[in-house]
Amino acid sequence: MQVLDGKALAETIKEELRQEVDQIRLAGGKIPHLAAVLVGADPASEVYVRNKVQSCEQVGFQSTLIRRGSETTQEEVLEIVRRLNDDPDVDGFIVQLPLPKHIDEDTVNLAIRPEKDVDGFTPVNIGRMTLGLPAYLPATPNGIMTMLERYGIETEGKEVVVLGRSNIVGTPMSILLSRKGNPGNATVTLCHSRTQDMAAHTRRADILIAAIGIPEMVTAELVKPGAVVIDVGINRVEDASRSRGFRLCGDVDYASLEPIVSAMTPVPGGVGPMTVVSLLMNTLKASKGRLS
Ligand SMILES: Nc1nc(=O)c2c([nH]1)NC[C@@H]1CN(c3ccc(C(=O)N[C@@H](CCC(=O)O)C(=O)O)cc3)C=[N+]21
């Protein structure tokens, strides 16, 4: 089995980005600037945002982290969004999800200027993506597309099954893989909580993408021998033997699939680092695309 090493690939791409930033600096151009808004104290979000800020430093981007407590009001978050929308130095920004329950994520998302929406979550970018127009693509699905491309995994005419229909992973993933292009041109089935007989679908998949958030749900009986498996899940499972009190696992039962699949992403070190790198690529694009 081939391990699809997202961590190593992310490092390679970050090195390419770093060289490009060096060129920009030599030419006296604008250094890309990413801002991240983190509201509340979700422990996983802390890790992800830290990874994003560190990766910015690694490639020579400027980064700004705006942190607020969990008591922050929706109006205060909207005020931060408006300020970032209007800040000419900030090329792109993200509002880390999930937000505290008293804040409506849709309202916040709709306030983000599409030109600065490097997450690719706003209606304009999702619409443009769906139409095949230039757009900021959502980071996780785009990271998976980059991985398929760089590892030379053929998708044309293949049966792809996506598990999970979230706005940020499952739905855009199904759109990107069914579009024309390479990767793309696949026959895509999108399964979700109301799917009848999920196994009947997954067992036909040449490429299986798991993004449901249920720890180790995808076991060997659900998978066709020789399939390529992409594990998007990052679940924290209680484990007293670990120093942190938990271990990370995916939506895929890695050990049971290892003997039968042809290629698979690990967790951690698979899709997660590719998500961060996609965000950096979008930020560079935003920085270059500026009119001023
Ligand atoms: N507005 C917004 N945009 C996002 O892109 C967004 C978000 N909200 N909310 C949550 C999800 C999840 N996400 C990850 C980012 C990095 C890793 C990552 O770096 N993972 C490492 C380390 C994982 C760990 O140590 O916990 C790995 O898989 O190897 C994972 C997941 C971005 N998301």
TrEMBL record:
GO biological process: L-histidine biosynthetic process; methionine biosynthetic process; purine nucleotide biosynthetic process; tetrahydrofolate interconversion
Keyword Amino-acid biosynthesis: yes
Annotated positions binding NADP(+): G164, R165, S166, I234
GO cellular component, one term: cytosol
InterPro entries assigned to the protein according to its UniProt record, in alphabetical order: Aminoacid_DH-like_N_sf, NAD(P)-bd_dom_sf, THF_DH/CycHdrlase, THF_DH/CycHdrlase_cat_dom, THF_DH/CycHdrlase_CS, THF_DH/CycHdrlase_NAD-bd_dom
Pfam families noted in UniProt: THF_DHG_CYH (PF00763), THF_DHG_CYH_C (PF02882)
Domain Tetrahydrofolate dehydrogenase/cyclohydrolase catalytic: 4-119
SUPFAM superfamilies: Aminoacid dehydrogenase-like, N-terminal domain, NAD(P)-binding Rossmann-fold domains
Keyword Protein biosynthesis carried by entry: no
Pathway the protein contributes to: One-carbon metabolism; tetrahydrofolate interconversion
Catalytic activity from the UniProt record: (6R)-5,10-methylene-5,6,7,8-tetrahydrofolate + NADP(+) = (6R)-5,10-methenyltetrahydrofolate + NADPH; (6R)-5,10-methenyltetrahydrofolate + H2O = (6R)-10-formyltetrahydrofolate + H(+)
EC number(s) on file: 1.5.1.5, 3.5.4.9
Molecular function via GO: methenyltetrahydrofolate cyclohydrolase activity; methylenetetrahydrofolate dehydrogenase (NADP+) activity
Family: Belongs to the tetrahydrofolate dehydrogenase/cyclohydrolase family.
HAMAP family, A to Z: THF_DHG_CYH
Name this polypeptide is given: Bifunctional protein FolD
Organism for this UniProt entry: Neolewinella lacunae
